[in-house]
Amino acid sequence: MRLTRRIAIGTGLAAALPLAGHAAQPLAGRQAPSFFRSKIGDFEVTAINDGLAQRPLDGFIKNAPIEEVRKVLGDAFMAQDKITIPFTSVVVNTGSKLILLDSGNGDLGAPTTGSWMANFRAAGFDPDKVDAVLISHFHGDHINGTRLKDGKAVFPNAEIMVSAPEWDFWMDDGKMAQAPEGMKPAFQNVRRVFAPMAKDVKRFDWGKEIVSGITAVAAPGHTPGHTVFAVQSGNARFLMMSDLTNNTAVFVRKPDWQAIVDMDGEVARQSRHRMLDLAASEKMQVAFYHAPFPATGHILRDGAGAYQLVPALWQPLG
Amino acid sequence: MRLTRRIAIGTGLAAALPLAGHAAQPLAGRQAPSFFRSKIGDFEVTAINDGLAQRPLDGFIKNAPIEEVRKVLGDAFMAQDKITIPFTSVVVNTGSKLILLDSGNGDLGAPTTGSWMANFRAAGFDPDKVDAVLISHFHGDHINGTRLKDGKAVFPNAEIMVSAPEWDFWMDDGKMAQAPEGMKPAFQNVRRVFAPMAKDVKRFDWGKEIVSGITAVAAPGHTPGHTVFAVQSGNARFLMMSDLTNNTAVFVRKPDWQAIVDMDGEVARQSRHRMLDLAASEKMQVAFYHAPFPATGHILRDGAGAYQLVPALWQPLG
Q1: pTM of the model
Q2: Is residue B4 assigned to a domain?
Q3: Does A14 touch chain B (CB under 8 A)?
């Protein structure tokens, strides 16, 4: 070890590179355009990144010692004093319809988010051409991308489609009145986004194919109407896992751990196990809204009741 | 399980999406530009992908039953009847010098390669502005990008820098004469690339800082002069692991397995263990020429003498 470390650090005998006939190349200072395409049967599924955010770690996980949480974060080479939450939504191009699964933070997220539209456009998409936006649940980071701070509708020609139980919960003024103060802004934000188009919003039921090739799957717990989307083209299937986890490095490895952001932790735990088991058994490609970009891959069993997310192989589409 | 699988497949009750006031968005048919930036101290390190290739699996690994190899490939959700070999080289911008570590397949690789220059340009780089190309070893997929089929030098203003033992081995006409027939094309290709500029090629010794911030580290076995590059800026360090593995999903998990493409399998095994141990102990960011893009991340110990490559967190540079 000593020897190799000494070698890796170098001998300090710098030999300055002799030539430099041109100006130095400035540092780019920017990440690559952050989209990633997969072929699912005849469909193209494109992951669109919206940056990431961090939340305080203390108290984030209700039922595990913080030292264990730090260990899991360290094994993922993520910050150990915060919980890192990446954001990636998914566009499904069926060849005839352009369907968006959740919409990003819009202009209301943390300063380290907000790259969604640039990445969406870099992928060759136009918000005017989106046919439908399917919403997994009503937290701000999933719906704010549909309506900017100034009230502008971002996808003017799209059907907005939401799960009926999610709509019924959040649009219930009685529930808003009874909610703890800390939750009231979330109710108000739901009204900010949906009230101007309430009569046009389409509500779907779980277990139904709501758009050609895309089925809504019940996955409650994170919120009452939290939905996973199953995409199918021919024999190829893909599961958008939405917020079954808030950080895949933590909750895919430790599916029994419960996040403070899950409204019903136990129901969320059951939904998480059920869908991870399904994805592992069927070897379906999956995506998670809160996985490190490109946020898509496969679920591998890793011991009893634990899993890994194996990132998708980055490859040409052909 | 039965229930969830039935739900995920859907009930078959398709509700056609009603609106379609515009033409369908054509499928893109292309992957995203495939580059990825990391900040290493004051340096920017950019991974540049050159696609991937597949080789027959049979006989590729000399000392493991093929069923075990297939299991490891399956756990990585890679093809199990071939060995998948991705290609990614690295550009280091020190702020004053633009240094390329290996050059890709140029126009002499498999049909599923050849995207290197497009990705390099997409990252904002110009081949005329490269100050130095550091070559890890002389296999075609690492050197052909410096000289095209028609003889054109791709980086006309760059110093070409190679390890002295690698040069001494491949440029030795006696060694070429003694080599088995199957290896002669590799010797001839080395001459194709280097003969026109032989007098200008700079040979470096292991253990020396060869360009400001970049040290050549001995890692023989894959070839006699195979080199790892240690990049250092301030306290931040990065290791370009070159061909310590031909597929990280296999040889990082199973460092004792030996590939047929390693000229001295036992020496390669020792180099691989030494450098994986160093990277895991020091928690340095690493890249591998043959890892799935973005081909960079960290090495985590995973049991005795085994490791995982944890992909780098995709994030803004700020």
Answers
A1: 0.94
A2: no
A3: yes
pLDDT over threshold 90, residue A80: yes
Strands (E), chain A: 35-40, 43-56, 82-93, 98-101, 132-135, 159-163, 202-204, 209-211, 214-218, 227-233, 236-240, 285-287, 296-301, 307-311
- Which domain does A102 fall in, by range? 33-311
Residues 6+ away with beta carbon under 8 Å from B23: none
Q: Does B149 reside within a domain?
A: yes
Q: Give the lowest-confidence range in A286-290, B10-14, B199-203.
A: B10-14
In a mutagenesis test of the A interface, which of B27, B36, B48, B52 is the best target, namely the one with the most A β-carbons within 10 Å?
A: B27
Contact between A241 and A217 under an 8 Å Cβ cutoff? The reply is no
Confidence at residue A301, expressed as pLDDT on a 0 to 100 scale: 97
In this structure, what CATH number is given to the domain that contains residue A166? Answer: 3.60.15.10
Which chain B residue has its CA at the smallest distance from A312's CA?
B77
Q: What is the pLDDT of residue A1?
A: 28
Q: Is residue B5 part of a domain?
A: no
The reply to whether B235 touches chain A by the CB within 8 Å rule is no
Hey, are the CB atoms on B33 and A32 less than 8 Å from each other?
yes
Q: What is the pLDDT of residues A24-48, one digit of tens each?
A: 899 999 999 999 999 999 999 999 9
**What are the pLDDT digits (tens) for A185-224?**
999 999 999 999 999 999 999 999 999 999 999 999 999 9
